Amino acid sequence: PSCFGYPLSIFFIVINEFCERFSYYGMRAVLVLYFKYFLQWDDNLSTAIYHTFVALCYLTPILGALIADSWLGKFMTIVSLSIVYTIGQAVMAVSSINDLTDQNRDGSPDNIPVHIALSMIGLILIALGTGGIKPCVSAFGGDQFEENQDKQRSRFFSIFYLSINAGSLLSTIITPILRAQECGIHSKQRCYPLAFGVPAALMAVSLIVFIIGSGMYKKVKPQGNVMVQVSKCIGFAIKNRFRHRSKEFPKREHWLDWASEKYDKRLIAQTKMVLKVLFLYIPLPMFWALFDQQGSRWTLQATTMDGNFGAIQIQPDQMQTVNPILIIIMVPVVDAVIYPLIKKCKINFTPLRKITVGMFLASLAFVAAALVQVQIDKTLPVFPAAGESQIKIINLGSDNVTIKFASQTEEVNVMPQSWTDYMTFETSQMQSLSITSGNKSETTIINLEEGKRQTLEVKNNVNNISITTKLLFDNITSKPEEGNNLIRFINNLPDPVNVTMGGTSFGVLQYLDASNYELFSGGRKDNITVTRNSIKCSITSKALGFGSAYTIVINECSGNVMNVTYSEDIPPNTVHMAWQIPQYFILTCAEVVFSVTGLEFSYSQAPSNMKAVLQAGWLLTVAVGNIIVLIVAGASKLSEQWAEYVLFAALLLAVCIIFAVMAYFYTYVDPSEVEAQLDEEEKNEVKKDPDISEKQVEADSRM
């Protein structure tokens, strides 16, 4: 059966691919944040495990191709590995349910190792599944066409690539929204089970759709794997060359010619072409090392930025959608506009030059990321080092206050109802300070905690008998994660007050008491309610941004009048997420000229029956690229994130130059010409020696 001149079966294949990519990219989008916030790993471990997983996903295709070509056939391989894959996604969803081990119901899992073990099993199954079916699905789609349907077949591959990007685009938008929901049985937490559960459900749908089409598929029998033959041929050539290493044997033109005792000329000629292309692949992994950090380092960078786009609030893991959106726009634009323009300018933009430009652009994107990182670092708060303490003075009275520190000569002036920034001192030298306000002056002994931040409340009482001081310990050691805000209250009223904000109760605060900091999700305005002597007054808080910490001072609550002041302890994220768009744009341009060209070039330079070997080689470059991230990030020990970005950019630039030199010396071949030449030679040999065709048959049967 066919439809619009296409075999009906390929519609099932395209839908299957869409669901499978949705499932994979959806899970991958939230993965690094799941590691960081749910399993509570630090940035480096999260990045390392993320890239190990991605590398595995690109190593397993070689296994999948071998199983399909030598044993099960493509159809059965896709079905059986999809089942493994679906189980993996389901295990992943179960691993993220915090109520699984949360006995004390405080909202965080009590037995983290159980969750880690489950999610690692899930990820290994997913890597086996997604990798194993990757080389089979597109080839299986290609198998559905007749010999004379070349045009439809190439159109199918375009639609196929589009379904990949559509799946990844939708899932990268949807899964972070699911993750940001609150869910749970005993306590409401970020909804990772939903974010992993929806991809798992889609994987099951993908499998069912694929099986429904079963009756319509053309199923080609497994014909043995060409990779095995190529490896055997290379192995034999090396062994044979080593056996004949002494001087008395004549040299051969190419080391692969040493395989000619056992293998026919055609296979040797084809293997030479493949090796020529694979040699060019050696520098390529460095590109993927940068490209795949969109899901790890760049997503972690977005968590320290401001995601407020007016009407909508962007989650950090949603920034990755910029890539598929741009791909869908850029691929046609580059093909229809940019390449023709370059041609008009009489520049010969060969495939290898395109790949070189792609590498250069990717390294530029990382320079852009480093510049953004430098801006972010300027807004990050500085916490006291070992041997240091920080103190902030907050004046709650109605008179000016002047503070003189024991070890310093200069004085600090604080207006009424205002405060200083955090000041850093050596803990050992900071024992006392003298306070002057109005006509009174007194010296206070203070004990600062080393490595901590403290706030000193100062209030000059109205009846002018004394100055009241109180030292508060601020238990914040880092900027709030995930764009959340920390809020605490100080009661500047003579009576006890009961404070709630949003749905969170801060309890009863006595005169000059401070509450603990409580966590609120970013970008909201909440209602503050204060009860004083059974009189209620309320006010809506100002917008507190993302990633900030505030101390809110309650100055008045009588009748319906309420007055509070906001003292900023940690400034909110001020660098906007939109500043990540330039680096995504440059990297997407790089991907368009690099990735699309790379596969096209490979196929044009090798015989048609060797495509599987090249596909495997190409996927291998992605896997190695992810392993490079592990090695570089592990070995560099750079404490500054911007410096790591610059390091990656520099490494890729160096590799880009090496590749340009290699490309300069590369001569393009036309495989069909080589094949025609071989056919010609064979014909001539048959004419000379009629027995040769029989020998050839014999040799083929031995292989």
TrEMBL record:
Region (Disordered): 679-703
Membrane-crossing segments per the record: 48-68, 75-94, 114-133, 154-174, 194-217, 273-291, 325-342, 354-374, 612-633, 645-666
Taxonomic superkingdom: Eukaryota
Broad class of the protein's primary localization: membrane
Entry's localization field: Apical cell membrane; Membrane
Keyword set includes Glycoprotein: yes
Skewed-composition ranges (Basic and acidic residues): 684-703
PROSITE patterns for the chain: PTR2_1 (PS01022), PTR2_2 (PS01023)
Catalytic activity of the protein: glycyl-L-leucine(out) + H(+)(out) = glycyl-L-leucine(in) + H(+)(in); L-phenylalanyl-L-leucine(out) + H(+)(out) = L-phenylalanyl-L-leucine(in) + H(+)(in); L-alanyl-L-valine(out) + H(+)(out) = L-alanyl-L-valine(in) + H(+)(in); L-leucyl-L-proline(out) + H(+)(out) = L-leucyl-L-proline(in) + H(+)(in)
Family classification: Belongs to the major facilitator superfamily. Proton-dependent oligopeptide transporter (POT/PTR) (TC 2.A.17) family.
Protein name, as recorded: Solute carrier family 15 member 1
Organism: Thinocorus orbignyianus
